[in-house]
Amino acid sequence: MITSKNQDGNRLTVALDGRIDTLTAPQLESELKPLLNGISELVLDFAQVAYISSAGLRVLLATQKGMRAAGGSLTIVNAVPAVREVFDITGFSDILTLA
Fold first, then answer.
1. What is the dihedral of CA 26, 28, 33, 38, to 10 degrees?
2. Beta-carbon contacts of residue 90 (< 8 Å; ≥ 6 apart)
């Protein structure tokens, strides 16, 4: 799921690949959690994410909540049109920071 990580100070950029669905969402959550210590800015690169389900949306919401509680931020970049449409339809485009 995570294809690359690039940390620059307190900013961590994580590139994701594939589908974020019921099967892969728990894996993504378990891979992200240990990476967030000491991070104030998390950027998730969705350029290679073709699909996201409600399980994936839950992981994003929980991650954003954790980042905000720690005084940090979460930004999603390069979301493909199909994924951006899911964000729009579900209202997540109003909740998440999309760039």
1. -170
2. 54, 57
Joined tokens for residue 65: 């909540």
Structure tokens at 28: 């993504």
What pTM, to 2 d.p., does this model score?
Answer: 0.95
Residue 60, amino acid:
L
> Length of the chain, please?
99
pLDDT given for residue 58 in this prediction: 97
The pLDDT of residue 2 is above 90: no
In this predicted structure, what is the pLDDT of residue 34?
92
| Mean of the per-residue pLDDT values of the chain | 95
Tokens of 25: 């969402």
Q: 4-30: buried (b, 16+ CB within 10 Å) or exposed (e) per residue?
A: eeeeeeeebbbbbeebbeeebbeebbe
Strand 11-20: give its sheet, edge to edge. 2-8, 11-20, 41-52, 73-77, 97-98
